[in-house]
Amino acid sequence: MPSMRDIKESIGSKKKTRQITKAMEMVSAAKLNRAQMHAKTYTAYTDKLREVVGGIAAGNNGSIKHPMLQTRPVKKTGYLVITADMGLAGAYNNSVLKYVYGLIQERHQSSDEYKVFVVGKVGVKFFKNRNIDVTHQATDLPERFKFDDVKSLAREAVGLYAYEEIDELYMVYNHFVSAINQQLTDTKLLPLSDIETHEEHSVTYEYEPDSEEVLKNLLPLYAEGLIYGALLDARAAEHAARMTAMRNSTDNATELIDKLTLSFNSARQAAITQELSEIVGGASALE
Amino acid sequence: MSTVHTEIVTPNGKIFEGEAQMINVRATTGELGILPRHMPLVAPLEIDRVRLDLDDRTQYVAVHGGFIQIHPEHVTILSESAELKEDIDVPRAEKAKAEAEGKLGKLESGTLDYETAKNELKRAEARLKTAKSGIE
Q1: pLDDT band at A26 (very low <50, low <70, confident <90, very high)
Q2: Inter-chain contact B9–A45, Cβ cutoff 8 Å?
Q3: Which CATH superfamily is A4-25+245-281 part of?
Q4: Which residue among A108, A260, B23, B131 is buried most deeply as judged by most CB within 10 Å?
Q5: What is the mean pLDDT of chain A?
Q6: What ipTM was predicted for this assembly?
Q7: Does B9 touch chain A (CB under 8 A)?
């Protein structure tokens, strides 16, 4: 049985850990709030973009030709993997990385067949440890990152597709469902396949010079916009995941402290009892 | 004078929202002057200055590409980034311009990097042009 002093020390250290995890939980909760707000202001932009792209798609009945809309034989696949810069977020990073790693192992024989774009330090480290080349990485994004901060990454991913360096692009990240639920999503970003078309378009727009020219400008913007949107989404999910993970560890710490306090008390009781019986024993021996 | 509701939307939110009497933009096909009740039109934009004639003043905005969606009742400019004249950091734009020019000199035309540098130069120029607009 551990001594009283050991137990007391153990309780102290667990209390300190609990303090930290509790603080981290609260920080994440505040950040989550902000991330959600941020994602909300952004949707105004994507909604508009989607409206215009959808409008063109609907007006042409699928007869539009643009490399970004057409599937071509796949020689090289791009993966855009979104992770966090820090750990301590439960399964947040691990689920994404494991999934991508499995995918790569399963689909590709040689490293010429894929390119990996990584967001977040955890992801970069993961691929480095496994000797997988990272084509482009973005780490240490500021808390409220702007479109400009991720533009080079988005542009490179979309640009490589346009220059036929990669023939398809997947995006793997955790989608924010709710504060307690994040979902691993794997979406095929390019070629763009599922542009929603809104039927209730009351006005038919003219395109200048023509719809193809407009699409040429619009689609890269749209694809980059989707990447930014995914990053915002993933950021919200990260904070949510961290919040939950930290709440769990706070709860665990409390439980441990309770248990240890109990054993500390019984140890103390045992020590008192022993002392008493020693005194009584000593007194009776004198008589 | 009649006006049209105008919005400039970027990924960082709405940069501008208000009623304009006339909107002057440079589309890839040339300059466009939009008055209220214009026919529905979508056109890609160049990286350039946009002029909005409001009721009481003229607002200049540096718009970095994107496109304009015109509806008889409202006009939306969508761009990956846009700055109001007041928000432009002139020294920074000048620095960006010098940097982009330096890069262009070293790169071969036709590559992805060259295009990027060229666009950066255009952006810096658009910003400077906007910042200097309206000052005689």
Answers
A1: very high
A2: yes
A3: ATP synthase, gamma subunit, helix hairpin domain (1.10.287.80)
A4: B23
A5: 86
A6: 0.71
A7: yes
